[in-house]
Specification:
Radius of gyration: 17 Å
Number of helices: 12
Oligomer: single chain
Amino acid sequence: MKYGIVLEGGAMRGLFTAGVTDVLMEEGITFDGAVGVSAGAAFGCNIKSNQPGRAVRYNLRFCNDKRYCSKRSLIKTGDLFNAEFCYHTVPEKLDLFDFKAYETSKMEFYIVCTDVLTGKPVYHRSSKMDRSGLEWLRASASLPLVSRIVEADGRKLLDGGISDSIPLRFMESVGYEKNIVVLTQPRDYRKKKTGSLPLVRAAMHKYPELVKAVAHRHEMYNSELEYIRKSESEGRAFVIAPEEKLPVKRVEHDPEKLLEAYRMGRMTVKKQLPEIKAFLCIE
């Protein structure tokens, strides 16, 4: 039986996920595969490289650095989160990503992006976190309106959460029979139709299928929550979610709030460790 972990996005809500995955790594709990969407991919790749503490460390260090995330970056580069600094300077020079450990790990790691031409999800198996792999990470977390379209392996890509926010069905389709699902919203959360659709329609008018996916994202998301609930009731999924709304905005510059979201992730998963170990058949 193959065991997987599914990591939702949510920008800086992803610090909750980092708290969860850090505790799992510290406890020696491993998975055969993982899939990450947006921040779930950008922070979750540290599972495959086995680097607990890294995601929260560099986010706290750079959350107020204008090179990391700022309106200045958006105006100068077209990306709110500066592409070169976030996805190359930080992992390659300032808070080193263990590229060798990632490559030698047997865990499969999938990154979810949205193809802007089709509006459909693309599931990229990332076996090597080279410059191309880092661009797939960037694409997965590139939100419309505040990011440029990313080109990787001949595709035009944006945020994976547009087309598949919580890809449990995907993991099951590639052979993962039991999956931990980490959400970044409380269990009773339901997504509403986005109010930014007119802006997206104006900015992305060349990509009508992408606009259509944005328009129906709330329906897709809520349908996925229902599927997760059903999978959980049937013993195929185990859900870890915040007990209350996280104290961070999608873009958050307050290090105390970021740290609190991270701590909430740690506390939540620690309470559930016995049930998680039972679900994963760990003695």
